[in-house]
Amino acid sequence: MNIEFPINYFEGNLIFSEDGSCWAYYQLAGYNYDFLADDEKDYIFTKIKAFFWQINLETHMLVVPNFQSIEEKHERFKEKLSGPLKDAAVKHTDDAAMQLENILGKEGTEYRFFLGVKLPKPENKNKNNSFFKDLKEAWKEFIGGVNTASGLDTPEILEEEIERYRRSERRIFNKVHSRIKADPVNEEAIQWLIRRNWYRGIGKAPILKNWSPAYSVDYKEFEDNEVLVRRPLYHDVLRLTEGFVDDSPKRSLVLKQMYEGDEVEGHVAFLTVANVPYEIEFPGEEWLYIIQNLDFPVEVSIRTETMDNRKALNAVRNKRKELKDQDRHAQETGNETNLNVLSGKQEAHELEAHLQKSRMPLIKTSIVLAVSAEDEDELKRRCDTVKDMYQDMMFQVEQPYGDQWLAFNEFLPGAKRYVKDYVHFMEPATVAGGMFGATKQLGDGEGFFIGSTGVLDQPVYIMPNRAAQGIRGTKTNALSAAFLGSLGGGKSFTANLITYLSVLSGGKALVVDPKGERGNWGDDLYELKEEINIVSLSTQEADRGRLDPFAIHQDVKEAETLALDILTFLTGVRLGDSERFPKLTKAVREVAEGEKPCLTKVLEYLVESDDTVSKQLGEHIRSFSELSFAQLLFGDGEKQSSISLDNALNVLQIQNLELPAPDTDPDKYNLSEMLSVAMMLPISSFALKFIHSDRSIFKTVLLDEAWAVLNTSQGSHLATRLVRAGRAMNAGIYFVTQNADDLLDEKMKNNIGMKFAFRSTDPKEIENVLSLLNLKHTEYNASTLRELQNGQCLFQDITGRVGVVSINALFKDLFDAFDSRPPAERLEVSEEEIVPDGEVDDLIEEEPETARSGVYV
């Protein structure tokens, strides 16, 4: 069947069709849906419904999978790599691409959402034209259309007409953006929307870079004036339609294309929705969003026209009369009335009453689905799966015979409705209930790979410094992140992995390791070579005073503040304690203003005081200073901290720390536990000093066991300073903690971007985690958190979208390096979780540089 190619020309987001109409196309970023409460879903539903109620123009909704080449994505990321580890980062990126292709295939799928609106024809500038002039211009348009269709002439577009359409588009954009947050597409997106149709079942459609449709410029007489006219070269747009289409199967099409040097064949079938149930439950039956639950991609094209309330009432009344006549005819002939006729009469009666009451319009809608595959058998399986899925929702889906080529063209932007046998008159609520724009996609779409999500195992990529770059669509500009969950779920593993990949990509990091779990990194992370620096602070005399506030900070006021934070925490002195707090403050200030200040001198000042209260404070502090590892805090004033953070990755460990359990009441801490928690204060302050280095480099501070800092008022204040300074200094603070309650303070919560929530079973903790993620406490959300497997988390990205991600380090050497489980637990599960290829374990020991490929978790 031959039909005219529907597109003459496009510019910006405007498409000029062969029938003389003009369409404007927009793209939706996609919004989070699965973990919203019913009232939140209803809010989105109401916005979409209002759009279709008010737009009063033809629209074209497209849901299309974007087959992203894993190799191309990784090649783009390689262009952004920098720093001393760039060579290692390039090698890792290449290895990761190879591994992902082995696991997921060469193409990753993500859904994109486009909306086309047919613009109203702009009024002629001269409204005083006579009837004969109007008739003359109409005749010119008719003759021009005939000549263009017959190939005798090229289409022409007045320059001022294009400008009028641009003004019209700006008015439409305000409606579109205010209701469904869509933005205008560019010419490359339109090119892709056209070209991709000929590559279904074959591969990723190639894009012509910096290409626009060609046209010539001419002047012509128009209404006694010489006006500028564009003459698009019609065949230039046809360059985007290369390939061969065979419609001989009648219920499907066979596409043939030269792809990567070979002739490749793809198969595609178009399914039409023949019947839509009168009542659709919402939420629960999102008939458009449901396609993302399938394990293969499905495309959808939905064309709508608005029928105002008066015309809709007339149409319903005429339909009711028709059904009534069928019922009467059956009775007169002695036959039983068909059940469809009886139910139709009832539905028509109800719809008429509803239209009269609500004054709503009806939406004339046609829905076409496209399913593609590499071979005919797989195509049949996929088509049957789609039909069965919609049958369960009481939709009737047909695979029309002979209309496949017509349906193919309906997916082209700027085209019209070609298949007219499957049109439905739907309420705006029914159209909105499909949840156009809802997505399961997560992450930044670029950067490094951290895991996969959904039934399609879509790869999840993040770029940790992206939030601060002012990207449109992001909900936060905070660079900090939270890693939450009970023991063994994977929070430390994930924080380690992201920190390592950030450093490899050109950043710097300081990892605070209070439990000493990362001492193996110097040997296991062989790619970092000399750029890793593990600082282990011990009880040896050489480490004395390295965490003394006066050794860490050159600024006296900074040192005073930190010294007071530490001492007030150890002694329990509160700001409102009018007797003890001033004496402690005075002692710190006196020492700070003297020579070689240190905490030991503060202790001596208090003990040697004639004041009884001061002596008691001094003795209290002395009880801590006598512990073996206290010398790190209580220096002698002889030396400054000599900890160097010049390397790309720095790990700061303190030996012999005895951190209490996170749920232990602070009032029940023993001396060692109190001092261990206090140790985290100067470490955090040290991190503050670290992030004030080179602002052009993205820096990461990973605070493991962050609850030890956040549980104290002093530590919470210091953490808030860290995240605020981090945002200004291009640094992200990664809080690894078992307690989400530590981060629920509004000042802290609003300064955290990405959030990774691993399994939790405690009801109160689940409530806190959901609050941190800005999710309502529904049974679905709570059960999802309870039932997460090891290595799975609820991930909230910087756009606010939430979904379940399976974290994957891809390589066994990284898995082993970041695995913090006790050796016995590793042995129990290693055979299930790690799949070696050949003798790669031996290679890792003998030739680590060549052992990456072939091993994945």
From TrEMBL:
<dbReference type="InterPro" id="IPR051162">
    <property type="entry name" value="T4SS_component"/>
</dbReference>
<dbReference type="Pfam" id="PF12846">
    <property type="entry name" value="AAA_10"/>
</dbReference>
<protein>
    <recommendedName>
        <fullName>ATP/GTP-binding protein</fullName>
    </recommendedName>
</protein>
<dbReference type="InterPro" id="IPR016628">
    <property type="entry name" value="ATPase_SAG2001_prd"/>
</dbReference>
<dbReference type="InterPro" id="IPR027417">
    <property type="entry name" value="P-loop_NTPase"/>
</dbReference>
